[in-house]
């Protein structure tokens, strides 16, 4: 079977007959500002519910099997505060990753509309020379209509791409997600555990989610180890408020869950940090796409995702990243 290079499809997409704007249905009217982003996918919703259930199960075992029955008050309080804080941050990061539109506002269409040799406009909040159409969030379906393309007033040599699946004008570094049914700019992958695509706008929250899940998994495994040692040295009937067989089953299940998620989330955390530092998404690495964007330092790439400048907000799922000067979106010609 002959392999077809990725850029071949881009060459097809740029042909005028491929756009076929007359076949695109006009996009629906956008919802009110601040409308919550949520993917209605049965598998993703089920995985998100399972994620919360597993974290709450770990909470139950840690509190009611190990910490509350413990006679060491200081040990219980310190570990209870640390574990509950990490679990809260993990669930908060999960919510932000799941309910955040994975594409930033305005920026995703800039280079598609202005062309790869044109200077980047300093502000994108308002139309520039009547040619800019600022989009909010993920690329809307069906915006590759004849009227919309004509309203862009493109100059000779400027290129627009059309996604044949969602009939939208496709920004640079965008890929179509069959689950979200949208083109997502800088899409890394679609994660069923957060029921959302991991893109440029929610990658920070996904990284924090994997980090905090790995930390609470490691913390739970350490406490299980100490609790087993304590129960072996003491009477099993006194080291827990549950019967010894029930205690052993609950601890073994927690140990299995913690070990599994520690390995999984640690690997995901490492791959995400590597993807951020190299400024290359998982899909771009998999497809070995030609790099058309300017190379930046690893520190600048980190600030582009977590915010500029470096602060404690990097570790907070409640702090929205402020890119400042760290996200110039420069493309090579």
UniProtKB/TrEMBL annotation:
The protein's location, in the record's own words, is: Membrane
Q: What catalytic activity does the UniProt entry give for this protein?
A: L-cysteinyl-[protein] + hexadecanoyl-CoA = S-hexadecanoyl-L-cysteinyl-[protein] + CoA
Position of the signal peptide:
none
Q: What is its main location?
A: membrane
Superkingdom field? Eukaryota
Q: Per the similarity annotation, which family is this?
A: Belongs to the DHHC palmitoyltransferase family.
Q: Which InterPro entries match?
A: Palmitoyltrfase_DHHC, PFA4/ZDH16/20/ERF2-like
**Entry's Gene Ontology cellular component terms:** Golgi apparatus; membrane
The membrane-topology field of this record reads:
Multi-pass membrane protein
Which EC number(s) are documented for this chain?
2.3.1.225
The keyword Transmembrane helix belongs to this UniProt entry's keyword annotation: yes
Domain comment, in the record's words?
A: The DHHC domain is required for palmitoyltransferase activity.
Locate the transmembrane regions by residue number.
Answer: 45-67, 73-92, 205-228, 248-269
**Which GO MF terms are attached to this record?**
protein homodimerization activity; protein-cysteine S-palmitoyltransferase activity
Write out the GO biological process terms.
Answer: cellular response to nutrient levels; lipoprotein localization to membrane; positive regulation of protein localization to lysosome; positive regulation of receptor localization to synapse; positive regulation of synaptic transmission, GABAergic; positive regulation of toll-like receptor 9 signaling pathway; positive regulation of TORC1 signaling; protein localization to photoreceptor outer segment
**PANTHER family with a match to the protein in the record:** PALMITOYLTRANSFERASE ZDHHC16
Cite the Palmitoyltransferase DHHC domain residue spans from the record. 162-288
Q: What class of enzyme is it?
A: transferase
UniProt name for this protein: Palmitoyltransferase
Keyword Transcription, does the record have it? Answer: no
Pfam families attached here? DHHC
* Keywords, comma-separated and alphabetical: Acyltransferase, Membrane, Transferase, Transmembrane, Transmembrane helix
């Amino acid at each position: 079977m002959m392999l077809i290079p990725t850029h071949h499809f881009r060459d097809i997409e740029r042909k005028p007959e491929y756009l076929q704007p007359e076949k695109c249905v006009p996009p629906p009217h956008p919802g009110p500002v601040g409308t919550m982003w949520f993917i209605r996918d049965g598998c993703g919703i089920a995985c998100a519910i399972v994620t919360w259930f597993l974290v709450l199960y770990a909470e139950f075992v840690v509190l009611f099997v190990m910490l509350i029955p413990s006679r060491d008050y200081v040990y219980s309080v310190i570990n209870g505060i640390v574990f509950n804080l990490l679990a809260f941050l993990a669930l908060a990061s999960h919510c932000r990753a799941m309910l955040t539109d994975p594409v930033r506002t305005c920026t995703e269409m800039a280079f598609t509309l202005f062309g790869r040799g044109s200077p980047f406009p300093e502000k994108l909040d308002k139309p520039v020379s009547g040619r800019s159409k600022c989009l909010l969030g993920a690329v809307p379906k069906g915006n590759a209509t004849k009227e919309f393309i004509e309203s862009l007033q493109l100059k000779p040599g400027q290129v627009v791409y059309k996604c044949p699946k969602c009939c939208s004008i496709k920004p640079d570094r965008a890929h179509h997600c069959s689950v979200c049914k949208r083109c997502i700019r800088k899409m890394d992958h679609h994660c069923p555990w957060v029921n959302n695509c991991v893109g440029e706008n929610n990658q920070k929250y996904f990284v924090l989610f994997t980090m905090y899940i790995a930390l609470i998994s490691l913390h739970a495994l350490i406490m299980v180890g100490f609790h087993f040692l304590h129960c072996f040295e003491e009477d099993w009937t006194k080291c827990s408020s549950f019967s010894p067989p029930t205690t052993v089953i609950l601890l073994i299940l927690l140990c299995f869950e913690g070990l599994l998620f520690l390995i999984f989330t640690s690997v995901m955390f490492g791959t995400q940090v590597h993807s951020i530092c190299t400024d290359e998404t998982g899909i771009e690495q998999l497809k070995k796409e030609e790099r058309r964007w300017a190379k930046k330092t690893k520190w600048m790439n980190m600030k582009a995702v977590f915010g500029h400048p470096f602060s404690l907000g990097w570790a907070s799922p409640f702090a929205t990243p402020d890119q400042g000067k760290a996200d110039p979106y420069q493309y090579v010609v």
